[in-house]
Amino acid sequence: MPTPTEAAGTQPSPAASSSADTPVIEFVDVEKRFGDNVVLKDLNFQVARGERVTLIGPSGSGKTTILRLVMTLEELSGGYIYIDGQPLTHEQRGGKRVPVSKKQQKALRTRIGMVFQQFNLFPNMTVLENITEAPIHVLGQTKAQAVQKAHSLLEQVGLPDKADAHPTSLSGGQQQRVAIARALAMDPEILLLDEVTSALDPEVVGDVLNILREVADTTNVTMLIVTHEMGFARDVSHKVMMFDGGRVVEEGHPEQIFTNPSHERTKKFLGAVLGH
């Protein structure tokens, strides 16, 4: 299912990439294999600008792999991913699938932020240093700019007094809030959320989800979310996609997916997760 740009064997123009109609994320015939194990095959979907899309499904269905491909933490086995109409890792050139330049990949990567399941904070750095490191060295912000933004974000996530603390002195919930602040410090166009509450104690899950709800309510950031928190998915999503075996088995508005799913696999999964 090549895009018109792909069929022409050319790269989208800057004007095309800024069009409101251009998907912020587009998967075209994406395939991902780990050895002989095919995790994703012939995957095609789009995420519109400002849209919040949640991927649900059983463990091993390929959801986290999708996020890692967008983050370029995994390499595509086949197909194409476009960010704002620009090829992220591979493009069609002269009728062949070839890698894009590292410069282009890096430029697109700076538009994407990710919050991981396991926080991934630098233990040797303070909270403030964790948040300001990338804005200074990747975005080229001055230290004063980055520090001012970091303090504002720490206020937003409820940790204004933790700037000089090290991650090891923080609880899991506090570390995840720092990780959210770190991702937002890059002013991402796209925010990827990978099971951000699964490593947390139950009593702090609500605090972290409330921060993400606020981000959804107060910004136009595009979100691609993997979660087992079905209430959160229902609250913040514009669209929910049910995955099984590396394929989309059903997608639709949260109300439709959670109250009247049409696919038997979706019904079975939600019955197990929701307990009915």
Q: Can you tell me about this structure?
A:
The chain is of the alpha/beta class and 276 residues long. It has two domains: 4-111 and 188-274, 3-Layer(aba) Sandwich (Rossmann fold), CATH 3.40.50.300; 123-187, no CATH class. The chain is built from eleven helices and twelve strands. The chain has helices at 4-8, 14-17, 63-70, 102-109, 127-137, 143-156, 172-184, 202-218, 230-236, 254-259, 264-274, and strands spanning 25-34, 37-47, 52-56, 78-83, 86-87, 90-93, 96-99, 112-115, 190-194, 222-226, 239-244, 247-252. β9, α8 and β10 (222-226) form a beta-alpha-beta unit. The longest helix is centred in the C-terminal third of the chain and has 17 residues, at 202-218. It is globular, with a radius of gyration of 19 Å. It starts with a helix and ends with a helix.
Key terms:
2 domains; 276 residues; ATP hydrolysis activity; six-stranded mixed beta sheet; four-stranded antiparallel beta sheet; 25% strand; 38% helix; disordered N terminus
Explain the layout of strands and helices.
Layout: H1 4-8, H2 14-17, E1 25-34, E2 37-47, E3 52-56, H3 63-70, E4 78-83, E5 86-87, E6 90-93, E7 96-99, H4 102-109, E8 112-115, H5 127-137, H6 143-156, H7 172-184, E9 190-194, H8 202-218, E10 222-226, H9 230-236, E11 239-244, E12 247-252, H10 254-259, H11 264-274
Parallel strand pairs: 3-10, 3-11, 8-9, 9-10
Antiparallel strand pairs: 1-2, 1-4, 4-5, 6-7, 11-12
